[in-house]
Amino acid sequence: MRPHVVAVPVLDGMPAFDIGVAGEVFGMPRPDLLSRPYEVQVCGVGEELVRLQGAPLVLRVDAGLDVLRRADTVVVPALASVDAEVPGELVDALQAAFGRGARVASVCTGAFALAAAGLLDGRRATTHWMHAAVLAERFPAVHVDPHVLYEVDGQVATSAGTAAGIDLCLELVRRDHGTAIAAEVARRLVVPPHRQGGQAQYVSTPLPTIPDSALAPLLDWARSRLDQQLTLRLLARRADTTTRTLTRRFTAELGLPPLQWLTAERVRRARQLLEDTGLSIEQVAQHSGLGTAANLRLHFTRQTGTTPTAYRTAFTRRTAAS
Question: What's the topology of domain 4-202?
């Protein structure tokens, strides 16, 4: 049976890891597993030598974009930057591959190349959380979900940051060969066959900096008392204003009303406690001001896409256990 051809078009400035994701998942020989093996072809866009981002490596590319004419799957790695121009010949090749029925996927900011080719219009898609807003703004016809690790919509698939490319490629193996084969491939890669939660658990949550705002003292006061009962009326009294005025000021300056801000801060505190301490889930709920374990799970899952227990497993710092 003819191998399933996976084409990986590369450009100057692409990260080595992102290029290697498809090769690692699809390209390693596994004759004992796959009834129809994969054949990975790295192809250049006019240049024989491609300089990679990160490690000072140069990749020699022997094939051109004509590989896409016979590819069953095309995987576009992350671009050098979200502002990098996508060559017209790559756009044409992606459109042609899609038009004849090839599956087209992207890793990280490779989604911008798919969007430039119009392949994401009207579809659900994702990219790295740092660039999701830019993708949505630049391509308003794309339904961008910044929370998921990957998205498969018909014959088009996109993934979040670099490591999420592995998650996506394993999902494509599952669709080609079934859950058991995908799980065995994951085991040989020494990665989980499916990661719990989405991108939200990896998004950093820096404190908002509003030094010139009259709200700053109130925010500091509330953060120092997250484990206490804080009501909208109490916050307004502390700010010496009405609840309506306080809500208006919060929404204008922070983008959300006071109680939503308070819940977000409590979840942020819970994340910190889960990472740095050995407190039980019930204790984390109490110290963060979320009250009960059930309430913690509700708000934590809603904001991070994963449970407190799964988050602790993934992010506990070794120093906390020593």
Answer: Rossmann fold (3.40.50)
